[in-house]
Amino acid sequence: MLLGVQRLTKQYRGPDGRVDAVSEVSLEVDAGHFVAIRGPSGCGKTTLLLAAGGLLKPDDGQVMVEGQNLYSLSPEQRAQFRAKRIGFVFQQFHLVPYLSVLENVRVPSMAWPMENAAARAQELLEMLGMSHRLHHKPDALSTGERQRTALARALLNRPGLLLADEPTGNLDRENAEGVLQFLTQFAHDGGAVLLVTHDDYALGFADRTIKMREGRFHSASEEATDETTNEANVS
Ligand code: ADP
Ligand code: MG
User: Fold this and answer.
1) Could you give phi then psi for residue 179, rounded to 5 degrees?
2) What's this model's pTM, rounded to 2 decimal places?
């Protein structure tokens, strides 16, 4: 088990009272596996993903990544663990606008220096078909190229876990397929991928799909009646 989420619960307190964003969700993802969670907007996908990646402390429950209990670490230790072992990809890319493609991909190595970061960045960009865009700024890229840049950045430190939040939400079909194939390859090479989406298209690439609604995973019996989903693993 590379990622283990146990009874994770997160609530927000907003102007209209309490929001139960994620309620007692449990999930395991093994190395070599690509798991997708699908659910409508507002069902808690981003909250779950951020908590699973050490970016948002849950109110209750545990997150284990490669045997490490993320929220037993201090915030500094957690940031360091995250930088080394967890990659994130978001729908909005979150590239630094004034840095080139190559510099954006090297950003993680600025916080936590690593050997051969420049060579690794070039190699990843080459694998992603970006060799001809190394010195472009993000606003001079297509959306597909922006997401490939963000993917290279996420993989710079050779993380074990890749977390993807609607990574194809802003992409056309062809670019979406390229990104999803890359995520599939990452899992085949021994990584673990957890992707959340409201879009059915990404689901065909995952080994396992879980449906989420109102902060919870669907039960197995509900799942069995729905033919659009291949398999569910609900704890
Ligand atoms: P999804 O990614 O599936 O769209 P989110 O995890 O972003 O869902 O949000 C789950 C619920 O929590 C939504 O009802 C949302 O409005 C609420 N929510 C998200 N972030 C906050 C926040 N910072 N403060 C208050 N409520 C929030
Ligand atoms: Mg979201």
Assistant:
1) -65, -45
2) 0.92
